[in-house]
């Protein structure tokens, strides 16, 4: 009974076997994107890796084999992505699955001292880039009765102090995924959202581990929200979501209660953080560092 009630949320319907299917993955040169490509390739899929790093994406595709193709493209370049999608269509004759995974984080900054160009850059890649990737492939996905995954983040519903562009972009990606899920409902195709907490990637190490203030911000996460998963595990979650046509997936599992109860939790949490002396101290030190870097 419970499973029946949750079916519209968790997924359901005809499962999707990726063997002989064509999958487009952005951010495919490394991290979650490459691990997903490797996993799906091993299951018999054809994979098109999109990435801005030409050398890295060529090496990643070559490491997979003849059913992988590398395409150098900046997901923020709308026309470039449209042409890249067309190249996949020409090479393989079809597109069954699209995974909008490419993402970046900004250098830590408060909204007051954030460089507006940095805000624009993060949204152009994380949010507009997801739209640029998905839209030109939708007719193909619908024709194939395929699936779309947009990679959001648990940051979409977590407090955004010190990194608001990332949280804003991932909240936008969530809404893009929800719209797709509903709009594709009568087409035979499907869409879902993947939310991840802290994943062991180069981006995470740069932001939370190698940056002193970033590490202190990260230390504010309580257990189990501070638990990390590997890029491989994140890829396994996405691969399973594709197969099940899941509407949403959340990992690590400790974030699930927060995801479900965020409407109530965030009201109290935002107040708590706004009066927390540790957060106030970190915010002040972050602004002092930015001003020092600017020579003020």
From TrEMBL:
SUPFAM superfamilies, per database record: NAD(P)-binding Rossmann-fold domains
Entry superkingdom: Bacteria
Gene3D superfamilies found in the cross-reference section: NAD(P)-binding Rossmann-like Domain (3.40.50.720)
E.C. numbers: 1.1.1.268
Keywords linked to the UniProt accession: Oxidoreductase
Classification via Pfam families: adh_short
Entry annotated with the keyword Disulfide bond: no
Keyword field contains Transmembrane: no
Gene Ontology terms for molecular function: 2-(R)-hydroxypropyl-CoM dehydrogenase activity
Domain Ketoreductase stretches: 21-202
Listed InterPro entries: KR_dom, NAD(P)-bd_dom_sf, SDR_fam
EC class name: oxidoreductase
Sequence similarity: Belongs to the short-chain dehydrogenases/reductases (SDR) family.
Protein name: 2-(R)-hydroxypropyl-CoM dehydrogenase
Organism: Nocardia cerradoensis
